[in-house]
Amino acid sequence: MRKTTIQLAVLSLLAIGGAQAADVTGTVAYNPMGLTGTSNVPAATVSNTSTDSVYITSGDFTPYDNNYTNIAAYSQGSTEGGLSAEIGYLVMGGRVESTATWHDTISNLSGSSRNYQMNLNLNSMTFNMGGWTANPALRDFRTGFVADVMVNGVSVWKSAQTFKLNGNGASIEKFGVDIGNATLRDDTGPDYASLRYTLGNFLGQANLGTFAAGQTAEVSYSLSAFSYWDDPEGCAFECSSITARVDDYVGAESRIVSAPVPEPESYAMLLGGLGLVGVLARRRKLAAA
Known about the structure:
The protein has helices spanning 2-16, 252-255, 264-288, and strands at residues 23-31, 44-50, 53-57, 71-78, 82-90, 94-107, 114-132, 140-151, 154-166, 169-176, 183-186, 192-199, 202-211, 216-230, 240-249, 256-260.
């Protein structure tokens, strides 16, 4: 049994091919969006791609000065399969996004058509926002995540959720695949808000499609966490903050899996077999009667 399992694993890797082409990109970006208190804070982006692993932070902004000390964002990923996007805190106006992207070129080397799936394991999904403000009606906080699987530049699986605090009201927006409902801890008062959204782990698959023998495809998986802070009469730089984190750790050997597509003859044999089972069942029923 062990020998058979090993042989199947080797055949699956041969059928997929292209593992040597994997790379990972980390990106952290900030946009002041012309919000209150950001006139002296320029937009900034830092990004890096590696065939091994990356670790990018908002501390890598160029130039980095005191304007950015109220942003802590991290993006890390490995070609071994792990991705993590985090906003440690956003304590000033604007929008910050952290993105980790895994990319590979897959090739069907099996000699026949195969269907490909990507395994997903979203976890550590926690989102916090709140703080004191002089005027809750003007407060607009948002945070959330986006997970996007693409084949040859076309999205084939996408899930996103945005958690909002407008005034003292909490709300959620969902887009794409619904991976579950977040639990909410709400400790909001008249002029102070404290919201914590937590999503349970999600295990699932994204269907990448069916590829003919010899066909290749570019596959990418991007995981992003973002935060948006707008509170004109709030306590920027001190006593309000937004945080976000989302991870996906699946080993490279099991990130993409494939299975052969049954030939038309196989379907015919299957239907024929089902028909025979039906005939035998009817005969037994008649014989019993």
